[in-house]
TrEMBL record:
SUPFAM superfamilies: P-loop containing nucleoside triphosphate hydrolases (SSF52540). InterPro entries: AAA+_ATPase, Mrp-like_CS, Mrp/NBP35_ATP-bd, P-loop_NTPase, YlxH/NBP35. SMART domains: AAA (SM00382). Pfam families: ParA (PF10609). Residues 14-185 form the AAA+ ATPase domain. It comes from Cettia cetti. Keywords: 4Fe-4S, ATP-binding, Cytoplasm, Iron, Iron-sulfur, Metal-binding, Nucleotide-binding. This is NUBP1 factor. It is found in: Cytoplasm; Nucleus. Component of the cytosolic iron-sulfur (Fe/S) protein assembly (CIA) machinery. Required for maturation of extramitochondrial Fe-S proteins. The NUBP1-NUBP2 heterotetramer forms a Fe-S scaffold complex, mediating the de novo assembly of an Fe-S cluster and its transfer to target apoproteins. Implicated in the regulation of centrosome duplication. Negatively regulates cilium formation and structure.
Length: 278
């Protein structure tokens, strides 16, 4: 009955993409926010961004929605909209203050994730982006289990070049394989820094073991792209603005656009394969 309920609610969602990382602080929420902005730049596409990072919900701040409240209607919870075609849902909207700590055990977190999937009225959605916390524990198992009642196109895994980050990302890739979650590919974030004046590139986090590229070759996973560091990304996120719109000529924006295009192509191909199977 529960699976049928989730299926009914998510029937109108065409593509679902999970954004994962074994490590905290690699820019996963930033990537999720910019992926949503990039997809929603096409006004014909309806995009939804679901933040299931229960203890560290940064999506409301990044999307410029701090202080917004969730409204209940006859058809469920209404998402908070950034644009007409970009809706957001996060536990951050349920807290009385952005500084409130969420001190919950696993079952309560799982219950909220289920509620987000079952009770939020997204309407017709082309892309549902799910921003997850770091690791491979409760929230990840729950989202994969609940979404298995419908379909998941796959996961995008975010890393930085250093071995400390890659070590945890390898665990995340193994997690995806164990729970049979398709991997769309890996994004190497903070990959070098291009000086805006002299245009020279410096490696702020040197890839001591070959970075994401070498790891992807070893584990037979696609490398979707490398995003260079740009201080403007942090500033845009703090202001709740889209970096892609504020810095259209930045090398990081060009990299993001290529990665977003590859994710779209993967999702369309995945959708066609599913239709053939059916």
């Amino acid at each position: 009955a529960e699976a049928a309920e989730l299926r009914a609610r998510l029937r109108a969602v065409r593509h679902t993409v999970l954004v994962l990382s074994g490590k905290g602080g690699v820019g996963k929420s930033t990537f999720s926010a910019l992926l949503a902005h990039g997809l929603a730049a096409d006004e014909t596409k309806q995009v939804a961004l679901l933040d299931i990072d229960i203890c560290g919900p940064s999506i409301p701040k990044m999307m410029g929605l701090e202080g917004e409240q969730v409204h209940q209607s006859g058809s469920g919870w209404s998402p908070v909209y950034v644009e007409e075609n970009l809706g957001v849902m996060s536990v951050g909207f349920l807290l009385s203050s952005p500084d409130d700590a969420v001190i919950w055990r696993g079952p309560k977190k799982n219950g909220l994730i289920k509620q987000f999937l079952r009770d939020v009225d997204w309407g017709e959605v082309d892309y549902l982006i799910v921003d997850t916390p770091p690791g491979t524990s409760d929230e990840h198992l729950s989202i994969v289990q609940y979404l298995s009642a419908t379909h998941i196109d796959g996961a995008v895994i975010v890393t930085t070049p250093q071995e400390v980050s890659l070590q945890d990302v390898r665990k995340e890739i193994n997690f995806c394989r164990k729970v049979k979650l398709p991997i769309i590919g890996v994004v190497e974030n903070m990959s070098g820094f291009v000086c805006p004046k002299c245009k020279n590139e410096s490696q702020i986090f040197p890839p001591t073991t070959g970075g994401a590229e070498k790891m992807c070759q070893n584990l037979n996973v696609s490398l979707l792209g490398k995003v260079p560091l740009d201080p403007q990304i942090g500033k845009s996120c703090d202001r709740g603005q889209s970096f892609l719109a504020e810095a259209p000529e930045s090398p990081a924006t060009l990299s993001y656009r290529n990665i977003i295009q590859r994710i779209q192509e993967y999702c369309e191909q995945h959708h066609l394969q599913e239709e053939k199977i059916i």
